[in-house]
Amino acid sequence: MEDIGHFVLEQACQQLARWRAMGLRTLGMAVNLSPSQLGQPTLAPWIAECLQRHALPADALTLELTESVLVEDMGAAQQILQSLHALGVRLALDDFGTGYSSMAYLQRLPLDIIKIDRSFVDGIAAESTDRAIARTILVLAHEMGLRTIAEGVETAEQMSALQQMRCDEMQGYFFGRPMEVDEATALARGQLRQAMA
Predict the structure, then answer these.
(1) Where are the beta strands (DSSP E) in 33-112?
(2) DSSP label at 179?
(3) Which partner from 82, 134, 143, 189 sits 20 to 30 angstroms from 97, CA to CA?
(4) Stated pTM of the model
(5) 87: pLDDT strictly greater than 80
(6) Domain-embedded: residue 197
């Protein structure tokens, strides 16, 4: 699993370096960390070498981890995450609220981003428990100086509700489906042209 994780990180950094060489310098890359990777004390030095090898700034890379990863060995995870944060890499807690949610994670870990799980986005357009939970997570995150990303946005109504609640970023099929590299490159180039027009 560790080898696969390293391969994915290497490929992600390589692709990001290609995009930046094409002039798409505002793009970043997010990669999930597996439990086995987070248990490796050599992870931070390896990521530092990978970033250097591809001439990438550390803040262009976001590493995503789930709460279940943290539960296995909070002490070791905390040390490794501190090392990663010291590099300047951004750290995101994925699927927040669906696992072993604890305010202690938010206090003790050097997180930059909280990702709101799609299960809370489904019913967010109407007054509902989902909406109340999402609103609470957003307020908490912003009070702690953390950015927020909502997952699984599929409708304009969901997007509008999240905008009203000041969600920083959103992802989901409403914005685009998974795509091949060439298609993603064309999309990013088109958005860059629009922004410069």
Answers:
(1) 61-66, 90-96
(2) -
(3) 82
(4) 0.90
(5) yes
(6) no
